[in-house]
Amino acid sequence: MQPQDSSSSNSDTVDYQAWICPNLLIHWQILPASDSNQVFLQAIKAEQKILFSAAEGYALKHFDGTFTVKQVQEKCLSQFGQEIDSTFMLKLLDKLAELKVLAIPSKNKIQKLNTDSQTNETIKLYRLKSAVQWIEHPDRYWLLRLQNPDSIAYLQVSNHDKN
After folding, report:
1. Is pLDDT larger for residue 140 or for residue 41?
2. Domain containing 44: what range?
3. Read out DSSP for 115-137?
4. What single DSSP character describes residue 150?
5. Together in a domain, 43 and 90
6. pTM, two decimal places
7. Same domain membership, residue 72 and residue 140
8. CA distance 58 to 6
9. pLDDT digits 0-9 by tens, 93-133
10. Contact predicate 12/95, CB 8 Å
């Protein structure tokens, strides 16, 4: 299943359905929004709170490191029926990446690993970690943000070294 606008997604060139949804609950909590069926995804150790629809919140509850994207898509379809389209999870992954909740690898990295015979590396790539995040800096370098249970660390990386 491909999204209609393939230029907007880092994940549309591969079979994202097999990705393992990371355990977000290590660093995030899901809270109900007052007087609404929407939910907030709130960072445990930071001042970040993001509003999601009921269907997105239901999907996020399954981001515990045990379900694949396809399994969560099926659970959402079972729970919400026609409300869920075939690209629901792809859109949610892209939204999480845009909001810097998850870091999805670039298309070049995905394509390189998909053509590589080292399947262990490909499997590691798809196990997105909620505690590791790439942040692009306007001065043309990258920060790798590493959030451990007790601290946050940053590593500055050149664009060449990141790719």
Report:
1. 41
2. 6-128
3. HSS-HHHHHHHHB--TTEEEEEE
4. S
5. yes
6. 0.60
7. no
8. 26
9. 989 988 888 877 655 444 444 444 444 444 444 444 556 77
10. no
